[in-house]
Write a structure and sequence with these properties.
Helix 1 crosses helix 3 and helix 1 crosses helix 4. It is globular and about 45 Å long. It has two domains: about 40 residues, no CATH class; about 130 residues, no CATH class. A hairpin with a 2-residue loop joins strand 6 and strand 7. A three-stranded antiparallel beta sheet has the order 1-2-3, with no helix packed on it. It contains six helices and eight strands, in the order E-E-E-E-H-H-H-E-E-E-H-E-H-H. With about 190 residues, the protein is of the alpha+beta class. Bound molecules: iron/sulfur cluster.
Length: about 190
């Protein structure tokens, strides 16, 4: 299968491009749209499960589900195009944070204490990675990650008690997403 984003971004060394475009914020290229994600992608623990909640919501834009721009729609698109895509898991600011307007040099600007806020999120990242039996810096294929999520985190509500995006529905988006899987046509 052709890997999504197999063209080097002409304006942003180290990144990849998939779409002809003209309007990506921060894009330095006049030829292609950088989809903001490096290869291999670097994703923090809690964003692994945020991706499933977003998928289950059926929304297209991050702002419509998270209330803020981030790169989860681009990540989801890439995962769906390539189940063998490698993801490097981390417990800190990641490729999804890269285009978020709340990202600060010292952390996450969701609260006025960006460092403290990011430390809270890092605890959440660590808890998710521990449940998935993954170590910081480890790489895993998207398909294997989905199997672990389905087996080990059937109920995200026990982790994401403070989530303002998915808790209003009782985390139904997440359950729907892990039931269906990112590659339903490949299900046996
Ligand atoms: S900077 Fe904060 S709010 Fe923005 S994507 Fe990263 S963790 Fe989420």
């Amino acid at each position: 299968m052709r890997e999504a984003g197999s063209t080097a971004c002409s304006g942003w060394p180290g990144r990849r491009s998939v779409f002809p475009a003209t309007s990506a914020p921060g894009c330095r290229s006049t030829v292609t749209l950088c989809v903001y994600l490096r290869y291999p992608v670097k994703i923090r623990g809690h964003h692994l499960v945020c991706t499933y909640c977003f998928y289950g919501s059926g929304k297209k834009k991050a702002e419509d589900f998270f209330g803020i721009k981030n790169a989860i729609p681009q990540l989801l698109q890439k995962l769906r195009q390539n189940p063998d895509m490698a993801i490097t898991v981390v417990t800190n600011l990641d490729d999804v944070c890269d285009i978020c307007p709340l990202k600060k040099p010292n952390g996450c600007g969701r609260s006025s204490d960006a460092f403290g806020q990011n430390e809270k999120l890092r605890g959440w990242d660590r808890a998710i990675l521990e449940a998935l039996d993954l170590q910081e810096g480890e790489s895993i294929k998207a398909k294997e990650l989905e199997t672990r999520i389905q087996d080990r985190i059937p109920d995200i509500g026990t982790f994401c008690t403070n989530c303002s995006s998915s808790s209003p529905s009782g985390w139904e988006e997440y359950r729907k997403a892990i039931r269906k899987g990112l590659w339903p046509d490949e299900a046996t």
